[in-house]
Amino acid sequence: MGDPRRSGAPVTPLLVACALGIEQVALRSGRGVPGPVRVLRTGMGPRAAEAAVGRLLGPGGVPDAAVIASGFCAGLAPGMHPGDLVVAEETRDADGTTPCTGTGVLVAALARAVPGRTVHTGPLTGSDHVVRGSERAALRAGGAIAVDMESAATLRTALCHGPRPVAAVRVVVDAPEHELVRIGTVRGGISAFRVLRSVLPAFYEWHRSLLLPRR
After folding, report:
1. Which of 44, 52, 175, 211 suits 183 as a labelling partner, its CA being 20 to 30 A distant?
2. CB of 99 within 8 A of CB of 164?
């Protein structure tokens, strides 16, 4: 991989946290990037995300890492399709709101990394269970554009371990007109998987563009 200090890559690592094995496979099998990037599988749900991220950012881990929560999500806005990207302006859950860093940088980098894919920006809300039907409509009415189970917990936990850039980028795997229970789920899942394989260079560009706080 070479010495990141010679290549201009950030010395401080980037941690990309995802919940599922298939998400980890997609992120790891995409195009490689220079620099220290670690893809962490946390397991499903906010408590699992809190525990896994907390361990890795603690003593003996990578305490200064910038953090991106990634993987799949459910789109809430009409017109969303499997394979669309969601870049969170903030994450929300019952424990509060976490502003994200460098949203504009990520949107531009993703447009270059995954040309032709729609990128949505707005609040990403968290849940401790899979939401459907009327519950999705209620979350949308509150302003959220997408929902997943780990992003809010991941970013909140990261900031509890010290100041750092944090972001959340998700790929829509189902949406109001394309719910998982309908025919076409497999096709939508394949589309989302292919997009997720392509995002890592954009994450690295975001990471490289930011000055990490010195503590």
Report:
1. 44
2. no
